[in-house]
Amino acid sequence: MTDILVIGGGIAGLSAAARLAPHASVTVLEAETALGYHASGRSAALFEEHYGAPSVLALNRASAEYHRTANGGYLSPRGFLLTSGHGDDALFRADAKALHCDEISLAEARRLVPILNPETVARTAYHNGAQDIDTDRMLQDFARAVRAEGGQVITGQKVESITRDNGNWQVFTGQNVHSATLLVNAAGAWADVIAQMAGLTPIGLTPCRRSMARIPAPGGHDVTGWPLFFGAGETWYAKPDAGKLLVSPADEDPVTPHDAWADDLVLAEGIARYEAAVTEEVTRVETSWAGLRSFAPDRTLVLGRDTQEPEFVWCAGQGGYGFQTAPAASQLLADLVLARTPEIDADIVKSLSPARF
Question: Which of 148, 179, 211, 217 is close enough to 290 for a disulfide, judged by CB 3.0 to 4.6 Å?
Fold first, then answer.
């Protein structure tokens, strides 16, 4: 028996558990044999304060100091470069305004990313505030924080059923039964499935596939210092990673919850859009994969107690913003569970509440 069971060992579940562990006994249950296996393990790992819906922006701002300073800081310089083709002026202007980036000359842009094609790229804008997140270290640090407070983080615990017995949750995972007074649903793409197991109304979360390919460094360039660069309207993006490039079609195709893999046709279309903006052809894909970004109907995170059953707490709908919002989102969740006044603006708290559905 524990006070709180957290279902999900990704960044959402681990960060929430770490915030709650000093105040109650906490156990994290992860279905896979490794933490952060699904969406958290397939993240673009970027912190950009100006990226996301208004509620996400508020969480980004509230998370920034933690990202910069906690445990020595998790951020390192990256920057991003917005590009547009001929005829994409409207998309370019909208993205540049939303992302607070400044237009620069193509010559300046080619100094940042030498493979940009001067014949096909018409306009560029740059923002140096985007930073890489050390996502693996953040996951492990939150897990260590849970254990340091006497909590447990248990892998290989796929939830098969959930019942209520004398006011306590009973979570069945194969041969094991885990009991707790309060249940935190941080199951990512499976969050609605968990709610239904608990006999509650699902939010209406939609898991969406995001595909990725790793390609060799184009033209033998050292890509280490290149920014993330992408097309107007976010129809593709490329990001340096361990001396190579990650290229994504920035797809967002609705799917059922599953261990996702890249769709070859979608990936090929995204690579073609990337190739149209650069001078180097992609001759080899070293590996490819996909992750699931889960969105609530209004594309805003869902944080707080369920309206039907207050001892069931939602921590879902991160929609690809899980890592960058985790410090503030987890703190907010803990405040709500512990009946403390959140530091986040009350209107933002309301916009994140399950009560809006």
Answer: 211
The tokens for 110 are 């080619």
- Distance separating alpha carbons of residues 63 and 58, to the nearest angstrom: 9
Q: How far is CA 357 from CA 16, 202, 346, 351, in A?
A: 22, 10, 17, 10
Quick one: CA dihedral 98, 102, 107, 112, positive or negative? negative
Indicate the pTM of the whole model. Answer: 0.95
Closest CA to 233 of 245, 218, 251: 251
CA neighbor of 207 nearest in space, from 160, 167, 260, 171: 260
Residue-wise pLDDT for 270-282, tens only, equals 999 999 999 999 9
Q: What is the DSSP string of 175-208?
A: TEEEEEEEEEE--GGGHHHHHHHTT------EEE
Give the C-alpha separation, 63 to 57, whole Å.
10
Q: For residue 124, which of 68, 167, 173, 86 has the smallest C-alpha distance?
A: 86
